[in-house]
Amino acid sequence: MKHMTKSLAVAAIGAVLALSASHAQAAPTPVAGVIVGGPGETTFKFSNLTETFPSGVGDVLSGFGRVSQINQLFGDDFCVNTGCELTYAFNFTVSQINLGGTLNTTVFTDGAANFFLDDTADSDLATASGFTDGTPWLNTVGFTTTETSGPNAGATGQLFSAGTQFADVTQIIGNGNGVLQITGGAAAGYFGIDNLITFSSSFQSAIEAWTLPLAGTAELQVVAPQVPPPTGVPEPATIALLGVGLLGLGVMKRGRVKV
Ligand SMILES: [Ca+2]
Fold it and tell me: Rounded to the nearest whole angstrom, what is the distance from the C-alpha of residue 87 to the centroid of ligand 1?
């Protein structure tokens, strides 16, 4: 009898500890079919992309990407329905280009990036097809900032890139960074309309057989707003639960003594 009582007490304390842990760190959260970071946590997305080769002011950079990782979930592990794909299409317009420095630089404006959730994984980087079907999951537009450091310091725009051989589509290689602002989509309520997404990217010449001339990657980060607890502070509730649990054990023990 003493053994059973002790193990019940341990189980009760374990349950309380688990409750406390869930308050300290939010669990991965399903949002419109995709498992993302909890409220107040960073959602990190890694993706592969294919894109055009803009070479002068006014040219449009456009492309398509597929998310291959969200936080610690890879492949389709972040899908609520197994086998989904999260893809996106984007475009920016060149506002400045500098081919004269040690590093070539390009500044872009008029940006947009729209994400789609598709239950049939049909996107193909080589043919640039299958990226814009499915449900609009998150819509964003470029957010204008001024670079304070790096090769684009002092420039104002929405996407900044730097690298080498920016005039040669077969030799170009570089990196980019910028900011997007959420405007809509099924996941916009969770991530917050007007909330900002920071991103960085890399790009280089694609394999010749690809439809679009450049290939690359992009990493995006967004923090969903912290939701305040609906009723008061969680700690007193946890303590009350512990009290009820111990009370229950006491009643049980007393009952057994009588018998
Ligand atoms: Ca698709």
Answer: 7
DSSP code for 56: S
The model's pTM is 0.79
CA angle at 27 for the pair 21 and 29, rounded to the nearest 5° = 160
Per-domain residue ranges of the chain: 1-28+231-259, 32-227
Q: Angle at CA 28, nearest 5°, toward 25 and 33?
A: 155
CA of 124 to the centre of ligand 1 (A): 9
Q: Give residue-wise pLDDT tens across range 73-104.
A: 999 999 999 999 999 999 999 999 999 989 99
Residue position matching structure tokens 């057994």: 256
Please give the single-letter amino acid code of residue 196: L
Q: How far is the CA of 68 from the centre of ligand 1 (A)?
A: 13
pLDDT in tens, 8-19: 444 444 444 444
pLDDT value of position 70: 98
Q: How far is the CA of 131 from the centre of ligand 1 (A)?
A: 5
Cβ atoms within 10 Å, residue 164: 12
DSSP character at residue 127: T
